[in-house]
């Protein structure tokens, strides 16, 4: 037998020169023990390869491997080896009985039976048939026709020592003939993606399959032995010997696989060994029974792959690094071709396809990420992966960070038939240049670089497409039934869920690989947040930030990593909130200055930030928590904002199309509307995935808990505003669109956070009025029980706003809410004045509903009385409510007459027909606009008047409305509404569709007269009414419908009925006083209103005004009205000398009048 086999076996096992090598080396150096010149590893490999070529048997190389002999069935008895017959002689045949007896004795020989078992195992596990063996007489058939025959001599012996020699023959030769049967023993598990693939072209796959088959045989032997009641000593000994043989096979195939990966050029079948391993990993999770990463009992540590890595680490770690980097590069190349989780025809790299047998198969992102997961099951490999080039972005301060990446130009346009002339060539070049310009360039350290050039970015950028989802194509979306849409949505969500689980497992492998690997992964997450600071903009710049798909997947990945401590309340204390104030910890994610500064709840700027030592109990938990919290701002919060914008656009277009054409048929044919619906359906697949939303809500409530449990105000003020806004925004957005997803939400800490930040203690700290207004919206949208089944909020699950511990709503049961919520909302009602016109009306309508609910509950009534103890806060609230009412009444009273006028024109055929088509269109559009404005304003107007009514039933609150700063404005507002409803122009308000517009004149008149009755006995109110020119006749005119329609009863009716007479008496005294003051000197007049001053004050600008005048001005505009400089009421000084002159002058006038009388 050739000397190649033992030499190669010895080299593979020991990595040392064989006896022949030593002899040759001795001859080369002169022998005699003299040391020759040491050979380099490269020279050693070249010599070994040369000797392999020289020692290769020419017959075998020319004719290929011999077909082996196999049994026709496992149970068939082997035929004895036939001997060449001698020349025929006349010898009598032995008796038949003696032949049978010798055959039986031979078959019952224990040693021979053991030998046959060993041969059978070698055949089954290694696909090898021994020449001249007892099993070699059968003709190979079927899958076994690809087995290799090995010649171990005339009397082959199989032992632990001979396995290396047997394997060396197998791996050193040419590959066996190609198989076409998918049922091949070695062709179905490791060869390729489809049927008919030939894995025997892959040496690594063959070795892996042998290892797995040996493991299966070992399991069978152990199971059989365990189930046998009693075994003879002989059987036990045989099983032990077979076990040792199989264990040796496992050991040897791992060793040879390691050698193939280290020295692929030594093996004809191992030239692409790294890609062979990559392909085995790629197909590994598709077939668990043939996986190279699963060992017996699903134990990874005894799998072929794990043992192979351990072998490489022990022999040549550098080779392992090279192999891993080659595999990662192949997977990266494949991921770059993936666009969505729905892709199933991704082309694998050519070298990976060749290693798998030449078939590309139906590759998918899921399979590629699963391959990465399989690759990183060993910690050492995971560490290498995180250290490969391109795993991280270039450092911010490096020159590479600012380098520009220009995407490769698209394929050049094809030439027209017959070639292209000069003009055509120039045109085609122009089109190619234009196409290249449309592809945005980006920096090497940017959001696009993160998802295109880093391994984790390539994984996380894959999701459900929002603009090219063929299942919701614009051409067909309007014809799909709701059931069909729901079914498709669920299917795609399931695909997305499986993909997210795959990359989450990949990330866990990297995180658990060790400190260095974990630090690299967390650095990637940190960079992902730093380069995407612009992702929360209304229109993010695609050349600077990553896609919304990646940012949402980023949050999903971080949330999964947070699960161990989020779900365990005992670990919440590990979160160190000083992370946000420690630059060395957050590395700029929570910067306090510069363009990327993160707004804080309280103080701003670096100088205001307290210096606190950051010594966390568990740095990883704190880092993970705050990076996840930040990712939500760029992920789900930003995606929900974009989705809301899409829905508003869709709603507006729906209204425009239906109102223009009077039906929904045109919706089916409008391409723009279909496109928006397509995008809506596509975006909702990922955005409202149930499990993902549940994870987000659970984490958001933990964020609220962390903020609630901060006892120190200084600590809370340094927390980012986004924490609060994201908690509020995400929960309210989901409540509006998909309220059923809130059913498992534990919202206790979210409610406590809202109450805490609205409370007087923290009201001055949270200076962002828009953020405070959002807190009020959360109370209405989430925690206020619906009025009835028609209320939109009725879809919010009751469990969300009910405290399960007491069976009552949080608003009523929470002690903190009982103490502070009522006065907080009254203050908030005034503060939302600064949020903008339309936003202000929306906020106040919601706050009004919550205040009414609190007023009607006994638990909150004491808190309303405490509001009178803070005069300044109440004046802000009262000013806000009167400003709102005046604005709303002005809008409604202006629009209603115009609506009536348009309706009358449209009802008159002659007048309407006389108008041109353009004039009719203008009137119709103006009518629709007015109706929309009135519908928006009247609900809040009604709620505001009702609030005036029930609040002023409290005497202490009523006294505050009679203050000089408020009383005149209250009277002006009430008289304005009364004049419009009851005066001569009341008929102008009579529209055709008052119910649709929420216009309820009877209810408005009832509330108005009720408020007049509450203040009727207050002299200050009577005087202000008289000064404002209130006509007692107008009040008596209003009294008629009140009595007729029974709008007021009892004491309420009596109070209002008595007011006209009281007003007439007071009006006489007011007229007399005004006669006295009619010729007052100019210095006694208010420089703003030119009215007589009773309490003159001097402003910082030196001007004199009446105190009520400047107090009312500062409520709406905190500046000096004469020079626009900032000013507060504390800056106003009493004009004592002028006050003395005024009092003296009044006394003189009154004495003079008395003398005259």
How is this structure best described in words?
The chain has 1157 residues and is an all-alpha fold. The chain is 59% helix and 2% strand. The chain contains 48 helices and 9 strands. It has a 3-stranded antiparallel β-sheet with strand order 8-7-9. A hairpin with a 4-residue loop joins β5 (802-803) and β6. α8 (203-227) runs antiparallel to α9 and α19 packs across α26 (671-687). The longest helix has 37 residues, at 871-907. It is elongated.
Brief write-up:
The protein is mostly helical. It is 59% helix and 2% strand.
- Report the count of strand segments: 9
Record the strand order, biggest sheet: 8-7-9
- By DSSP (H or I, 4+ residues per run), the number of helices equals 48
Shape: elongated
């Amino acid at each position: 037998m050739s000397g190649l086999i033992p030499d190669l076996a010895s080299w593979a096992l020991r990595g040392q020169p064989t006896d022949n090598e030593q002899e040759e080396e001795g001859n080369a150096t002169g022998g005699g023990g003299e040391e020759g010149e040491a050979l380099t590893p490269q020279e050693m490999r070249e010599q070994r390869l040369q000797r392999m070529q020289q020692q290769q048997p020419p017959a075998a190389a020319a004719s290929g491997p011999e077909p082996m002999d196999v049994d026709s069935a496992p149970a068939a008895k082997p035929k004895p080896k036939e001997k060449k017959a001698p020349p025929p002689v006349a010898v009598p045949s032995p008796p038949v009985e003696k032949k049978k007896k010798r055959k039986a004795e031979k078959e019952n020989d224990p040693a021979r039976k053991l030998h046959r078992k060993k041969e059978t195992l070698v055949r089954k596990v290694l696909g090898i048939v021994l020449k001249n063996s007892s099993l070699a007489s059968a003709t190979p058939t079927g899958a076994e026709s690809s087995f290799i025959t090995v010649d171990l001599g005339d009397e082959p012996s199989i032992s632990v020592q001979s396995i290396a020699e047997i394997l060396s023959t197998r791996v050193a030769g040419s590959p066996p003939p190609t198989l076409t049967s998918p049922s091949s023993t070695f062709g179905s598990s490791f060869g390729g993606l489809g049927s008919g693939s030939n894995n025997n072209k892959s040496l690594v796959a063959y070795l892996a399959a042998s290892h797995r088959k040996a493991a299966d045989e070992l399991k069978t032997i152990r199971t059989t032995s365990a189930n046998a009641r009693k075994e003879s000593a002989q059987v036990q000994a045989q099983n032990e010997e077979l076990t040792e043989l199989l264990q040796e096979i496992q050991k040897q195939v791992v060793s040879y696989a390691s050698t193939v990966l280290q020295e692929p050029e030594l093996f004809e079948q191992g030239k692409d060994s790294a890609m062979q391993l990559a392909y085995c990993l790629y197909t590994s999770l598709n077939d668990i029974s043939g996986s190279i990463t699963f060992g017996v009992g699903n134990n990874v540590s005894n799998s072929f792959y794990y043992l192979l890595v351990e072998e490489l680490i022990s022999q040549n770690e550098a080779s392992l690094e090279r192999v891993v980097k080659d595999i990662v590069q192949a997977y990266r190349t494949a991921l770059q071709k993936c666009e969505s989780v729905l892709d199933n025809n991704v082309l694998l790299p050519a070298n990976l396809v060749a290693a798998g047998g030449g078939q590309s198969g139906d590759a998918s992102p899921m399979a590629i990420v699963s391959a990465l997961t399989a690759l990183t099951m060993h910690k050492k490999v995971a560490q290498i992966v995180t250290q490969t080039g391109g795993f991280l972005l270039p450092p911010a301060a490096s020159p590479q960070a600012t380098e520009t990446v220009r995407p490769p130009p698209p394929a050049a346009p094809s030439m027209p038939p017959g070639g292209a002339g000069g003009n055509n060539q120039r045109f085609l070049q122009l089109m190619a240049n234009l196409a290249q310009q449309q592809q945005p360039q980006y920096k090497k350290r940017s959001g696009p670089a993160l998802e295109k050039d880093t391994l984790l970015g390539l994984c996380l950028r894959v999701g459900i497409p929002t603009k090219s989802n063929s299942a919701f194509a614009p051409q067909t979306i309007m014809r799909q039934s709701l059931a069909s849409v729901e079914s498709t949505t669920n299917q795609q969500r399931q695909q997305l869920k499986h993909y997210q689980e795959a990359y989450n497992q990949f990330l866990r492998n990297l995180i658990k690989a060790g400190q260095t690997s974990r630090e690299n992964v967390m650095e990637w997450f940190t960079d992902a947040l730093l380069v995407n600071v612009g992702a929360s903009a209304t229109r993010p710049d695609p050349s600077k930030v990553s896609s919304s798909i990646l940012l949402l997947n980023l949050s999903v990945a971080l949330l999964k990593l947070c699960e161990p401590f989020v779900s365990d309340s005992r670990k919440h204390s590990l979160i160190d909130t000083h992370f946000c104030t420690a630059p060395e910890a957050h590395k700029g994610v929570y910067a306090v200055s510069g363009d990327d500064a993160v707004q804080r709840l309280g103080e701003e700027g670096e100088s205001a930030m307290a210096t606190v030592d950051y010594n966390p109990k568990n740095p990883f938990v704190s880092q993970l928590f705050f990076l996840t919290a930040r990712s939500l701002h760029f992920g789900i919060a930003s995606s929900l904002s974009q989705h809301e914008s899409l829905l508003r656009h869709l709603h507006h277009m729906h209204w425009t199309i239906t109102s223009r054409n009077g039906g929904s048929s045109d919706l089916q044919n409008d391409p723009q509307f279909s496109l928006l619906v397509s995008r809506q359906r596509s975006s909702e697949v990922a955005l409202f995935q149930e499990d993902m939303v549940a994870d987000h809500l659970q984490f958001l409530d933990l964020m609220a808990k962390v903020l609630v449990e901060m006892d120190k105000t200084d600590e809370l003020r340094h927390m980012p505003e986004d924490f609060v806004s994201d908690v509020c925004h995400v929960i309210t957005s989901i409540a509006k669109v998909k309220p059923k997803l809130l059913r498992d939400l534990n919202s206790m800490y979210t409610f406590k956070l809202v109450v805490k930040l609205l409370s007087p203690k923290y009201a001055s700290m949270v200076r962002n009025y828009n953020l405070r207004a959002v807190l009020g919206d959360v109370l209405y949208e989430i925690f206020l029980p619906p009025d009835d089944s028609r209320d939109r909020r009725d879809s919010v699950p009751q469990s969300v706003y009910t405290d399960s511990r007491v069976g009552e709503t949080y608003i009523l049961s929470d002690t903190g809410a009982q103490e502070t919520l009522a006065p907080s909302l009254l203050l908030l009602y005034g503060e939302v004045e600064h949020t903008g016109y339309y936003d202000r009306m929306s906020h106040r309508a919601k706050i009004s509903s919550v205040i009414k609910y609190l007023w009607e509950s006994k638990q909150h009534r004491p808190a309303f009385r405490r509001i009178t103890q803070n005069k300044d806060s109440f004046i802000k609230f009262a000013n806000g409510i009167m400003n709102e009412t005046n604005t709303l009444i002005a809008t409604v009273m202006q629009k209603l007459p115009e609506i009536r006028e348009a309706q009358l024109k449209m009802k008159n055929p002659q007048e309407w027909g006389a108008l041109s088509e353009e004039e009719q269109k203008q009137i119709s559009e103006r009518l629709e606009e007015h109706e929309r404005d009135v519908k928006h304003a009247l609900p809040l107007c009604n709620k505001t008047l009702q609030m005036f009514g029930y609040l002023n039933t409290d005497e202490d609150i009523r006294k505050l409305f009679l203050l000089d700063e408020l009383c005149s404005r209250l009277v002006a507002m009430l008289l304005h509404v009364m004049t419009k409803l009851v005066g001569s122009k009341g008929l102008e308000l009579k529209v055709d569709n008052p119910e649709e517009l929420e216009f309820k004149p009877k209810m408005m008149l009832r509330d108005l007269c009720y408020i007049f009755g509450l203040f009727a006995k207050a002299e200050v109110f009577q005087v202000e009414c008289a000064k404002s020119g209130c006509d007692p006749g107008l009040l008596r005119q209003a009294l008629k419908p009140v009595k007729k329609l029974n709008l007021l009863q009892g004491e309420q009716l009596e109070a209002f009925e008595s007011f006209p007479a009281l007003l007439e008496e007071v009006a006489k005294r007011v007229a007399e006083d005004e006669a006295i003051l009619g010729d007052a000197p100019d210095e006694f007049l208010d420089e703003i209103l030119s009215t007589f001053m009773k309490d003159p004050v001097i402003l910082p600008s030196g001007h004199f005004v009446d105190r009520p005048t400047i107090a009312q001005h500062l409520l709406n505009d905190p500046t000096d009205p004469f020079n626009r400089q900032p000013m507060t009421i504390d800056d106003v000084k009493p004009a004592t000398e002028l006050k003395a002159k005024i009092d003296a002058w009044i006394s003189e006038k009154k004495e003079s009048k008395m003398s005259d009388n």
